[in-house]
Amino acid sequence: MSTLRSRATSEQRPLPWAAIAAVGTGLFGLGLAVGGYGAYVSLLIARGVSPDAAGLGMSLFLFGQFAAVVPADLLTRRTAVERVAAAGFVLAGIGIGLGAVLTLEATYASRLLLGLGQGAAFVAGMKYVGLRTTGADTATAQGMLGALFTLGLAVGLAAGPVVVPWAGPALPTVGAAGVALAGGAFTARLATVGPDARTVLGAYLEPFTSAGGLALGFGNVATFGFLMVASTWYAEVVAGAALPGTAVLVGFALATVVGRGVGGWLSRTYGERATVGGTLLGLALVLLGLAAAIDVDSAAGIAAGLVLTGFGFGVPFGPLFGLAFSELADDAGVTLSGMMLVGNGAALAYPWLVGRLLAATDGYAAGFAAMGATVGAIWLCWRRTVGG
Known about the structure:
Layout: H1 17-35, H2 37-46, H3 51-76, H4 81-98, H5 104-131, H6 136-167, H7 170-188, H8 211-239, H9 245-270, H10 272-295, H11 299-314, H12 317-327, H13 332-347, H14 350-361, H15 365-385
């Protein structure tokens, strides 16, 4: 995640390594659970659950985050920030644990609670280290937290299709829940910070009433939101193609992680606007190309498309939030919550939609074509409002 600005201070503080370790542990556990969901989708479908019903679990996760981020930020303005983060990790850990019961009802409850908990933990955790650091250290500390979540997601996505069929659904779930709960316990013991200055409810949507602000919010649909769609369905895509599934998923996961660093380099070289705009266009073309490769059953095209989307999701994330924090609300907590509100809210139908189109067409081409067309529309909006 890009910089969440801290309170101004004249003193340079050392990096809060204990806080980074505590919050980062919890976020890594949440990443494991989010990234591993695709393996559980495969099990549900194998048990006769329709693809759209299985995909709805990730839609509920996105809805949970959508519903939690603003209340969580408001709560950090009334009580200690680390307590809000710890409570989020505990709620998410409980939700992850429910996923050990492989029924559709338990899966839905699991994903919803995970989304609610992650929304609270992410906002409050990022805010906590932002209030404990100054200047460039804020970007460094929060970048570490974002990297730990992304690393957990990458590990869960790549390892899930191997570990879940081998060990069963319960063991990986309990492991991820344990890591998240440990992060919550460590976070609860951190030094007290906050509460932060209060704000009004309307402040969270006001930055997105302009066309440029809305384009920034929609950019988060194409990065974080569609990354969640990918983590839901990519395991099933490679399982249905003549591909070395583990190698392709590892390639996608590595591309997502490496893409974060590439995005920073491109931003310094070409600027944030050009980096985000160019990557959005590239991602739209890759998704449309992936849909075409699936339609003609080109194994090489599918493998290349899946890996390249990892860069498409990873590269623009940091520059996008860098622009948001510099151009939207002065209150960084409002900006972070608002970006997550728009990004999760506008993307939440897509995990279900891909499954629905799979059931209707007996293939993934239509679903990924819809995603590509959506990213293309976001790019056009970006070009006309933000530029680059």
